Every structure is written in C-alpha cells, then in structure tokens.
Amino acid sequence: MAPTPLTLAVGPTENSVRVHPVVLFTITDAFLRRKEEQERVIGTLLGTIADGVVEVKNCYAVPHSESHDQVALDVQHHHTMAALQHRVNSREQIVGWFSTGDPDASRSRDALIHSFYGNECPNPVHLALDTSGQGGTMSVRAFVSCALSIGGRELAREFSEVDCEVRSTEAERVGVDLLSTELQEKLPGDMEGLADSFERLQQSLQQAQDYVDAVVAGKRKGNTAIGRYLAETVAAVPHFGREEFERMLTDQQNDCTLVLFLSKLIQAHLALADKLGTMQLPLL
C-alpha cells in the first residue's frame, strides 16, 4: 500500500497589506456596538490585489457566535452584504476577514474561519485589530496562512505575519486629522455647519462694506480690480422679495423632512428584513 502523500505548506503570494482608515473606523464601530456577551467581532474585508499587495478599502461586520472549538457565521448575511457591495463598487472584491482582540491570542476557531474565507477568495488575509487600548494606541496587524494537509485533508494551518500599514487619500487624511484633534469634541451637525457658514459670510460682507466705505470717504485708495469684482458679485446675487424667500425656504425644509422620513422608513424596512430573512449557519 502506497504511503499517503504529505502536502507541505506553500508560501503566500501576498507580501504586504495596506489598510484605509475607513476600515479601522468601521471595525471599531462594530466593536463598540457588539452585544455584551460577545468577546470580539469578525467580518469581511473588501479591496483589491495588485503585485502581491492587498489594499483593504472597505469592510463589514458579520454576525457570529463561537464556543470552545466551534464557530457559527451568519452566512446569509455575509453573502447578502457581499452582493450589495459588489453592486455599489464592482472593482472591490473579498480579500479576507478581520477580527478584534489580542492578535497574539491563539484560537483554533480562527483556522475554521480562515478556511471558510479560503472558499470565498484565494489566499485570504486576516486583519487583527487590537481593541484593548493598551498604551493609548490601537495596533493593527495582518496575517496570511499556509495549510498542512495529508491526503487532501487539511490537518493544520500556520499563520504568518506580513507587513501592514495604514494608507489614506487626501480626503481621508483631512477626516482623520479632524477626528484626532483634541479640541474637536464632536463633528458639527447640519445646523451647526450652516451657522458657521453664515458667520463666515457675514464676516466677508462686513470686510467688503468697510473697504467700500473707506474708499468712498477718501480714507483709502480704491482698486479698480477689486471694485469690478465686487460689482460682478453683487450683480450675480438674485433678488428675492420677503414672501418669495420665505416660500422657497419652507419648500426646502419640507423636501429635507421628506427625505429624512423616507431614509428612516427604508432603514426600518431593512432592519426588519434582516431579522426575518437571515439565519446563522454553522461552519463546523
């Protein structure tokens, strides 16, 4: 009888991982919203792969439950979210999965989850986010795995760490800087942003009025280019009567209220459909 062949692990093709800040925010938000009895949250990573570099651009959490050596994922929720994400951005594909907690903690369940995502994409990446907050920082690490099998049956899986860095676009960098500012306690709301815009507009109008008054009074020499610019700006402003302006403002408020009502209605419908149409399917 011929001996059963031993298949050794093959080195991973991915050698580095780039993570966008929105991925970290989404994972952190899912961790904060988890159930009290849940130790961690897991989910699916979306992005692109080019020249051995995995660029993680988006993600979503997947409901799950786990015990000592078993884990159950809401597979229907995973497939539904993957299909919706593909419709929004077809260039992003499933590239792996994420989890929160101590990255150094060894869990046999991670091999089961990794095997599941191995059926969803080739060479999945495991992104581990340390949410303990030790040292005032939140570390993120990436791992790839190699399987050791005998006779086509997988016996073990070895995780190897790869280079991982957080990359951001210019727009993302502005948002990160805003959130990391110590003096910024919260993001401004719609009304606060509108009030700030009116305040800046009032300051600009006051500066223009002071300049014109100084030129008319002979206290300051006038500039033809500035005068022409002010004249064009005033001519471009439409003239509304009081009643017409109030009617336009009321119509705008009604439109915003209707959009807000429809969005809340759709959100409630999706939450109800999710409760009625999803079920947890065990991996093992």
From TrEMBL:
Primary localization: cytoplasm
Species this chain originates from: Chlorella variabilis
SUBUNIT field: Component of the eukaryotic translation initiation factor 3 (eIF-3) complex.
Localization (cell): Cytoplasm
Domain MPN: 17-149
Top-level taxon in the UniProt lineage: Eukaryota
Similarity annotation: Belongs to the eIF-3 subunit F family.
GO cellular component: eukaryotic 43S preinitiation complex; eukaryotic 48S preinitiation complex; eukaryotic translation initiation factor 3 complex, eIF3m
GO molecular function, one term: translation initiation factor binding
Pfam families, per the entry: JAB, MitMem_reg
Keyword Lyase applies: no
Keywords (A to Z) from UniProt: Cytoplasm, Initiation factor, Protein biosynthesis
Function text: Component of the eukaryotic translation initiation factor 3 (eIF-3) complex, which is involved in protein synthesis of a specialized repertoire of mRNAs and, together with other initiation factors, stimulates binding of mRNA and methionyl-tRNAi to the 40S ribosome. The eIF-3 complex specifically targets and initiates translation of a subset of mRNAs involved in cell proliferation.
Biological processes per GO annotation: formation of cytoplasmic translation initiation complex
Entry protein name: Eukaryotic translation initiation factor 3 subunit F
InterPro entries tied to this protein: eIF3f (IPR027531), EIF3F/CSN6-like_C (IPR024969), JAMM/MPN+_dom (IPR000555), MPN (IPR037518)
Record's signal peptide: none
HAMAP family (alphabetical): eIF3f
